[in-house]
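Sanity check

After download, print the first record. It should look like this:
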Amino acid sequence: AKFRESAMFRRDSSNRGGGAGEGPFAYGWKSMPRQVFNDYSTGLSDDTKTIENPKNLKHFQNLARKKMGFSNILGRDAAGGEKDRTPPKGTVVYVLPVTTCYPEQDTVGGIADNFHAYSPNAPRDEASFRDFALMLRATVHAHSHRNPASGSVYDYAMYAIVHPRAKKCHAAAAEQFRARDGDDEEGGGLVESVEGIVDRTVVLQNLGYKVSIEHPPLDGSSIAGSDYLREFMAKENPGEIVDLIRLRAYELEEYDAVALVDYDTLVLGPVDEAVDLIVDSSRRASEEEEEFEIRGGGVGGDEDGIDAVFSWEHVPSLADPNARASVVNLSFLLVRPSKTAFAEIVKRYQNAPFSEQRGFGAIGRGAFPGWTTTQGFLTYYYDEVANAARIEVNRCAFGNPGEERHRGKYALITNGGRAECGAGGTGDGRCDDCGDSAPEGARVADLSRCGAPWECGAAGGGGGSEHDDDDDAISSDGPSPGLCRRFRKAWIDARLQMEDVHPQLQKGREQRVCVDGRYRPMMLLKPRVK
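Expected structure tokens:
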């Protein structure tokens, strides 16, 4: 396919766009999703599945006839490559839970200062939400089988689980699209402002996501394992139960593996090594089950497979200001989808022991942001219930937090008890804060402490440009300026390169994402079908 050559990120560039000097998308548009924007006129009419819109095919057929760079899309395979390519080993579905329109609680120092599990990087307006969702898909695409340059053997799908309260959100007038005709190469046409109520099921479908609207799999009154938790969830904090829509991801059995992500997720490289642990284990278990049935042994179970692959995230303890809790990182959690496992998990949540001092289970971590919801429960579940079916991976590779090495002493609460970390500590490998890790080794970064690239001028937030070398733009208390700057720069460079070459995005005149302290949203060139 034809594509505009990037003047900023040429393949022979030595100072921009990543370690290899080729930019985040090594083959330019060929490394990007061919279509980043569709044109759905309505949301989910039945609130269950994505609506297919025949106008999209007509639009691209028109472009193909006019030889506008889409000429061979319809003749290529589903992966966007040549038809004789080796087919993908499997498909990973990246699941984004959308539980609320905007953050409901303030944060202190970039960390949630409450019991809620909301990401500190949750977008605060619709333009940021749209750009995050677009770039999440684009970076996943760049590191999947659909981009031959990635070397990945896994295809991908994007999926959003939306709670009803997050379906329609208020947009400001500044959030704009530019409508253009199919033969308008230069991005002319009228500016279309989006103001009032925005239906996120439309936005996400337009950006290439499958969408389902889901309620939590249980309500607070059904909790039987703990009177304290039942009262806490059903009366004092009814909104907490909404976070459990994440568990619906376990039901997506049509995929080989599920990757739970959130607003802190930044995909920097192929994740095949982690996915292999799920996929290869599932296939071995399936082969053993078939052999068991052939020998007349009946039907085997799922107990021999690997059900979860994750890294530990170190979050602040709400009970001890000098301690942190080691918990399952929901910015990148790989699971083997199973409706049987989903039913077991929901039942276990309803009946799990929970105390005000420990939290879930006999080990517990005490109180931390999210301790009553998905993060707290899955930490307990994979510690005490399904601990033989999970594998821990290196947090500096699959969830690098961009933290600097801690200078003082602190306690880390783990499944093996309290570890003394920091200067003079004896906590061994459990205390690794990734402060000395090489950014090139990170496949997935967790930006919860670094801050979002679209948060301009905020402490710990995104810098003013892709070449921001100002250490003061990042808090010196916690995040590593070097790592955080590199991670945010990777996102910003990817966005700028997309704008530079993708025919559905208006070419940016400002080579910055922050102008005068304000985030500059991407301008989508909305197709008109004649």
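If your output differs, re-run the checksum step. Summary of this record's structure: DSSP finds eight helices and 25 strands in the chain.
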